Amino acid sequence: MKAWTREERYQPMEAVSPVTLEAMKEQVAESPYRQTFHIQPETGLLNDPNGLIYYDGEYYISHQWFPLGAVHGLKYWFNYRSRDLVHFEPHGVILKPDTEYDSHGVYSGSAFEYQGRLYYMYTGNHRDEDWSRTSSQLIAKMEDDGTLTKFPKPVIAGPPEGYTQHFRDPKVFQRGDTYYAILGAQTEDEAGRLLLYKSTDIVKWEFHGEVHTRLDAFGYMWECPDYFELDGHDFVMFCPQGIESDGERYRNIYQSGYLIGQFDIEQLEFNHGDFLELDHGFDFYAPQTFTSEDGERVLIGWMGLPDTAYPTDKDEWAHCLTVPRTLHIEDGKLKQRPIANLQKLRSNEETALGYANKFNRKLQPYEGKQYELIIDILENEATELYFELRASKTQSTLITYNTRTQKLTLDRSESGPLPEPVDGTTRSTVLDTPLQQLQIFVDTSSIEIFCNDGERVLTSRIFPDSEATGIKASTESGQVYLKFTKYDLEENV
To answer: Which end of the chain is more exposed for a tag (fewer CB within 10 A), N or C?
Structure first.
């Protein structure tokens, strides 16, 4: 792989010739791992979803983007629009690093509506000659022609006393006539925290204080925060960095999760339960939520992780976004379900009933590289269940379920080339209830597994060969009666 210099990483895309950019697009298009129904970069590196909102009859979905290679460099925002969160129309770059305050990258942020107009608040990254970082929070307004006009100066010039320049990722929300911005931060003694600002005119922002949680020593930085109310509960989401693994928990390089409870926004006291991971797969980070046209809370995450090399890097592109999920509270627990509109992508329905036993059985005519598969467990007398997807003679992505422990495991040890460095080749979660259903979305180089109607989700990149298309089922001992429903999925971008 190419060794990138700092100068190369921070070269503006505007300085690169159109011929070079077009050649990059052609190279990327030839990659065998290009997705079909996920948002992915046309070139270079995609990371955090940003500026998600339903506004004026359309969804606006942006992501951070370094266009010149599969590395983290000078960040832009690339935007899509959609009417259904399934079919997306690219609208190109909407935010560029073109001011003093965001000269070294337009970092993560959020969208909000104020007086009927669309605004974005985001983190501007600036480096001086000594490469010292200055982080400030900026606002841009969308004009009638779809272009953005940045406010002339930061609305939050820098972190308050006692915090470092790791101060970013504002998520704006509204309560009554007051607008709030929750930000990820780091104390001077390197502890992750969340800070809250408020405003009534979106120009003058007052530091409201630090959110008081029960998590005192929980990583050295909290990124990509989010706050929302759901069914009478307060949710705070964030991504803590620097958490040690604990058994099957916290095994990725950085984590994404949430606290649920009751938040006294005036006193900044958050009475909450345990920190719970949002996703139990290998590749999920920096999620952001927003409200849909129908008033549902929708989540989209980055299907990737920082500080990790991926097999697509050699093809000069990396990462994608997850399929959108709706969030629900049932019996005090979070359920995540793929949005119903994904059914619009379905074609060629195939359904079958049958028993699986200890003899590995290929499910004919089930095969494919891009599909939705629903597995209903109707009767289970087996000790352990095995489902192999994207299978060939030498490759498969294995899902294992232990009936006694209710542990579900994703094993990608034989899924083709793997990202690195990564802790192990399996990810596991213990279900709250016996396994009854798996709803699985498989794309060219990814898998998203929804267990028991959204009780758990496991999201991961996989990189099998093109001939790995089989679907198999078996057990350790005993038999299981299954219903399989498979749909081919069409392209949406």
So the answer is: N
Q: How confident is the model at residue 491 (pLDDT cuts 50, 70, 90)?
A: confident
In the numeric block, which tokens belong to residue 372?
């939705």
Q: Which pLDDT score, from 0 to 100, does residue 478 have?
A: 95
> Residue 386 and residue 402: Cα distance in Å, rounded?
9
pLDDT category, 113, cuts 50, 70, 90?
very high
- Convert the pLDDT of each residue in 341-372 to its tens digit: 999 999 999 999 999 998 766 666 679 999 99
Q: Which residues are catalytic, by number?
A: 48
| Burial class of residue 248 (count of CB atoms within 10 Å of its CB; 0-12, 13-18, 19+) | middle
pLDDT, tens digit (0-9, with 9 covering 90-100), for 450-474: 999 999 999 999 999 999 999 999 9
Alpha-carbon distance of 180 to 265, in angstroms, equals 10
The DSSP result for 192-250, as a single string, is EEEEEEEESSSSS-EEEEE-B-S-SSS-SEEEEEEEEEETTEEEEEEEEESPPPBTTBS
Q: Residues 195, 160: contact at Cβ < 8 Å?
A: yes
Ordered DSSP codes for 87-133: SEEEEEEEE-S-SSTTTT-EEEEEEEEETTEEEEEEEEEEE-TT--E
Q: Which residues, including other chains, have CB under 8 Å from residue 72's CB and lie 6 or more apart?
A: 9, 45, 47, 66, 306
pLDDT digits (tens, 9 = 90+) for 399-437: 999 999 999 999 999 999 999 999 999 999 999 999 999
Q: Alpha-carbon torsion 142, 145, 148, 151, what sign? A: negative
Main-chain dihedrals φ then ψ at residue 215, nearest 5 degrees:
-100, 95
E-state strands within 339-436 = 346-356, 361-367, 371-380, 384-391, 396-402, 407-414, 426-430
Residues 282 and 411: their CA atoms lie apart, in Å, by 10
What is the secondary structure of 12-25 as a DSSP string?
-GGGS-HHHHHHHH
Question: Which CATH architecture is the domain 344-489 placed in?
Answer: Sandwich (2.60)
Chain position carrying tokens 């690339």? 78
Q: What is the pTM of this model?
A: 0.97
Question: Do 388 and 435 form a contact (C-beta atoms < 8 A)?
Answer: no
* φ, ψ for residue 462, nearest 5 deg: -135, 155
User: What would the mean pLDDT of 259-265 be, rounded to a whole number?
Assistant: 98
Residue 109 has pLDDT above 60, yes or no: yes
Rounded CA separation 63/46 (Å): 7
Structure tokens of 217?
């020593």
User: Domain extents for the chain?
Assistant: 6-338, 344-489
The answer to whether the CB of 134 falls within 8 A of the CB of 157 is no
User: Under CATH, which architecture does the 6-338 domain have?
Assistant: 5 Propeller (2.115)
Look at residue 42 and give its three-state secondary structure. coil
Measured distance CA(264)–CA(181) in Å, rounded: 15
- For all residues of the chain together, what is the average pLDDT? 96
